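Quick one:
INPUT:
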């Protein structure tokens, strides 16, 4: 998808002769990344972080996938960034990065271990 983004502003996905998705790439990415964040932690790999978030922050975050840059989570209750950071820090996780997730593809990320 990143290759397409270099040359196009609008896209159409064709599946079996049907167009299930079309429009502005930025709008599509924003919609599919809505209320999702990508988080990484100091001294933890993505799989380990995903497990820690599942056990420690399940009331506020839902792990939706693993990305090369970290763990993709859904902000269940649309809490503020500060409230989420506080929750993660209370789980004894040292945050390395915390950012909005903008998928490079409208298709789901690799599922976290145990969700396959």
């Amino acid at each position: 998808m990143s290759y397409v983004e270099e040359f196009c502003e609008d896209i159409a996905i064709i599946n079996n002769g049907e167009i299930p998705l079309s429009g502005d790439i930025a709008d599509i990415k924003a919609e599919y990344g809505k209320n999702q964040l990508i988080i990484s932690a100091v001294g933890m790999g993505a799989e380990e972080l995903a497990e820690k978030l599942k056990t420690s922050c399940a009331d506020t975050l839902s792990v939706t996938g693993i990305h090369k840059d970290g763990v993709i989570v859904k902000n269940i209750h649309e809490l503020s960034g500060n409230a989420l950071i506080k929750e993660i820090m209370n789980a004894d996780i040292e945050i390395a990065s915390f950012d909005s997730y903008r998928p490079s593809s409208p298709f789901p990320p690799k599922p976290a271990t145990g969700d396959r």
